[in-house]
Design goal:
The chain is an alpha/beta fold. The chain has 2 domains: about 1-330, ABC transporter transmembrane region fold, CATH 1.20.1560.10; about 340-425 and about 545-608, P-loop containing nucleotide triphosphate hydrolases (Rossmann fold, 3-Layer(aba) Sandwich). The protein has 21 helices and 10 strands. It has helices at about 20-30, 35-65, 70-120, 125-130, 130-170, 175-180, 185-220, 225-230, 230-260, 260-285, 290-330, 390-400, 420-425, 440-445, 455-465, 470, 490-505, 520-535, 545-550, 570-575, 580-590, and strands at about 350-360, 370-375, 380-385, 405-410, 415, 430, 510-515, 540-545, 555-560, 565-570. The strands form 2 sheets. It has a 6-stranded mixed beta sheet, with helices on both faces. A 4-stranded antiparallel beta sheet has the order 2-1-4-5, with no helix packed on it. Helix 2 (about 35-65) runs antiparallel to helix 3, helix 3 (about 70-120) packs parallel to helix 11 (about 290-330) and helix 17 packs parallel to helix 18 (about 520-535). The protein binds adenosine-5'-triphosphate. Adenosine-5'-triphosphate (ATP) binds near residues 387, 388, 390 and 391. This is ABC transporter ATP-binding protein.
């Protein structure tokens, strides 16, 4: 079965709950709905009574015909059946209505909890888990859970009905009742045996579906790049096997589930044969009335309804159970970033110190080893180095998106793990390379970190960035709609909005991953002015990609393979002719205004 299961491994945070724990957890969601559930239970009992009354009434009718007094029972029978039908409809209506409400409320809470858990996860969670898989857990998995709840209530109702019928049967004939009942344990045993294999195949089916979702999501996210490179066919070729895998796994699930029916039919068939034989003989011998015999034959069918329901809905039931397991695993996933003592942060000065910090993204691979660095409060530092040197990693540790494994990271001399995370993050202004804008207006986006900021504050922040000329270029000023992901704005305008947003936030520490996208000289100048304004009087760590930045910062730190290999200001480092010069020649040289292709190289000591 090898490749059928490829890529369907559990996520890191997945876990298997024992049946007891799973049930306890599910019930905890239903507990607050106890009142409605009691009402549903009463309706179920009443509905089941009306349903059980039907075969009883008919059996009495049959006895009536046998005794030649149909005229006496005819009216009573019709009235009884009509009353049972009408009452049954009424009880069932109330039951369905309240069941739907209970289920809806439970799913609402479960989905809120799942979404809350998603928001609480560390950044590492998003790096490791494709977003399509997360979406699957919050949407389709919670839906599957709802199905379990509906099915359970249906099942309870049917089991109750069988209970009532069983009491009737025992009153009529203990022997025949036992024969009828013999079916139940056999069917239950088959169903229980079937349970484990059903849960496993269902889990695989769900994982394969979430893999399909994840692939679709990634395709949508990267559609511009894909179209640009004319890679539609390749995307399709990658999607096909994943989709086919989902098809095969689901087919296998279908095969597993359909195999239970022949066994169940065999058991029921045997029971019916027995009843026809034994009951018929007794009826002929006068020991059993024709009505009672009818009741027994009818009862096999009645017994069958819940038993086949268990079998028919077993797949959905198992699907719901493993869906709830997946949702609970998401809710219970332990955070990697752990605050040991969340103390209030207060206003930070912004001194950052790494003391012997060791960090790796995965066990067994180390990106930073025994790393030391002090960044003074108010200092501006540029991180440079070849790709993969560890620049973003440093910023991710400062922003507390990842947890380091060893050493100490202090902020203003306080262990970073003892700071209240929310309070700390409020004072960290993190700007990614491609600033993300949410749907809404430019003003909404500038106001994002502090929704209570007034229009005047927003305007002041926007004006402070690059003199505010860029606002005039927007079709509707600050009220311009930025479109999805800010697509209605140019790259440069998005960066300017991100800088204005920082001013509204007023963080003590700025961690900025400079954009690499080139913008026109005017916007470039506006961004530079904006940066000067934003970084003034704050500790700033800039993953530098622009020449003007490295020329302006207090200190440049050159990283290589997670180690600091050089540090100093631009002029000193250039004069030294060391590692920095290589980085300069590769990434910054061509940005000089008097650059001519092939010129501007700085000589590196030891190179010819
Ligand atoms: N999420 C991740 N999971 C596993 N390894 C990672 C992850 N992010 C980065 N790495 C690895 O850690 C090392 C340092 O990466 P980092 O992103 O800090 O480099 P960088 O200097 O910022 O590079 P770039 O300039 O290309 O962004 C690299 O070897 C990289 O492959």
């Amino acid at each position: 079965m090898g490749f059928i299961m490829d890529g369907l491994d559990a996520e890191d945070y997945d876990r298997t709950y024992s049946d007891r724990d799973l049930l306890r957890r599910i019930l905890s969601y239903f507990r607050p709905k106890l009142g409605s559930m009691v009402l549903v239970a009463i309706m179920i009992v009443l509905f089941s009574l009306t349903q059980a009354a039907m075969p009883l009434l008919i059996s009495e009718g049959v006895d009536g015909i046998e005794n030649g007094t149909i005229a006496d029972v005819g009216l009573r029978l019709s009235a009884g059946l009509l009353l049972a039908g009408v009452l049954g409809w009424l009880f069932n209506f109330v039951r369905q209505w309240y069941s739907a409400k209970v289920t809806g409320d439970v799913v609402l809470r479960l989905r809120e909890d799942a979404f809350d858990a998603v928001l609480e996860r560390d950044l590492s969670f998003y790096d490791e888990t494709p977003s399509g898989r997360i979406v699957s857990r919050v949407t389709s998995d919670t839906d599957d859970f709802a199905t379990v709840s509906t099915l359970t209530m249906d099942l309870i109702s049917q089991v109750l009905m069988v209970g009532f019928v069983a009491v009737l049967l025992f009153q009529r004939s203990v022997g025949l009742a036992l024969l009828t009942l013999v079916v139940a344990p056999v069917v239950m045993a088959v169903a229980l045996l079937f349970r484990k294999v059903a849960r496993t195949s269902t889990r695989s089916a769900q994982r394969s579906l979430s893999r399909v979702n994840a692939t679709l999501q990634e395709t949508m996210g990267g559609i511009t790049v894909a179209k640009n490179f004319r890679q539609e066919q390749r995307i399709y070729d990658e999607f096909r096997p994943i989709n086919q895998q989902s098809y095969r796994v689901t087919l296998r699930q279908g095969f597993v589930f359909s195999s239970i029916f022949p066994v169940l039919f065999l058991v029921a068939g045997l029971a019916t044969v027995g009843l026809v034989q034994v009951g018929g003989t007794r009826a002929l011998g006068g020991e059993l009335s024709a009505g009672d015999w009818y009741l027994f034959l009818q009862s096999v069918a009645l017994f069958w309804i819940p038993l086949t329901s268990i079998a028919a809905f077993w797949s959905q039931f198992q699907q719901g159970l493993s869906a709830s397991e997946r949702v609970f695993a998401l809710i219970d996933a332990p955070p990697r970033v752990v605050q040991t003592d969340p103390r209030p942060v207060g206003r930070l000065a912004g001194r950052i110190e790494f003391q012997g910090v060791t960090f790796g993204y995965e066990a067994g691979s180390t990106v930073l080893r025994d790393f030391d660095l002090v960044i003074e409060a108010g200092e501006s530092v540029a991180l440079v180095g070849h790709t993969g040197a560890g620049k973003s990693t440093l910023s991710k540790l400062i922003t507390r998106f990842y947890e380091f494994q060893d050493g100490l990271l202090t902020i203003d001399g306080r262990d970073i793990r003892t700071l209240d995370l929310a309070g700390y993050r409020r004072q960290i202004g993190a700007v990614p390379q491609a600033p993300f804008l949410f749907s809404g207006t430019v003003a909404d986006n500038i106001r994002y970190p502090r929704p209570e900021a007034t229009d005047e504050e927003v305007l002041a922040a926007a004006t402070a960035v690059g003199g505010g000329d860029w606002i005039d270029a927007l079709p509707d000023g600050l009220r311009t709609d930025v479109g999805e992901y800010g697509r209605a704005l140019s790259m440069g305008q998005r960066q300017l909005v991100a800088l204005a947003r920082l001013l509204v936030q007023d963080p003590a520490i700025v961690v900025l991953d400079e954009a690499t996208a080139s913008v026109d000289p005017l916007t470039e100048a506006q961004i530079q002015e904006g940066l000067d304004r934003v970084l003034a009087d704050r500790t700033s760590i800039v993953i530098a990609h622009r020449l003007s930045t490295i020329e302006h910062v207090d200190r440049i730190i050159v990283l290589d393979h997670g180690r600091i290999v050089e540090e100093g200001d631009h002029a000193t480092l250039l004069a030294r002719g060391g590692h920095y010069c290589k980085v300069y020649n590769t990434y910054f040289r061509h940005q000089s205004p008097d650059y001519r292709p092939g010129s501007g190289f700085v000589s590196v000591a030891g190179s010819t």
